[in-house]
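note to self — DONT lose this again. spent like an hour looking for the file last time. sequence + predicted structure for the chain T wanted, 169 res
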Amino acid sequence: MSIAQSLLPEFDQEMANTRKTLERVPEDKFSWKPHDKSASLGALARHLGTLPEWGRDTIKMDSFDIAPGGVPMAQPPLPASRKELLERFDQGVREFRAALASATDEHMGKPWALKSNGHTLFSIPRGACLRTWVLSHMVHHRAQLGVYLRLNDVPVPAIYGPSADESGM
């Protein structure tokens, strides 16, 4: 079994769990923040919702520059609605899955680099980047979003087992 084929079941599970969480994001709370240093609920949901695009790009590109020409990349605008958030997420998931399903072991073993203004911040095998900087990164931010939901009295979905709001059955 190829590296990509072995990742697909995990991919499908994590994308489904992430979508369940994003479906709960209350549109009227996009600007809510638990702390001044925290991202807003809308910004966190946007970041989580666009992480599949990072996965697609990690497979398709050999590097990504977060500050090309020394200018930090602009954040995409906040979604106007939960529907827009989910549509972008779903499109990213489809594109990421297609790219992952067709990736060879040789391609997954090639170096991938994160850069800033042309300078390499780190370089690791593409497969390791997908696991750490896309899938684990997504799980991390999904957990943050779950806390945001809890603090806003929005039922938290069952993910790996029951939540206090759902039996998981």
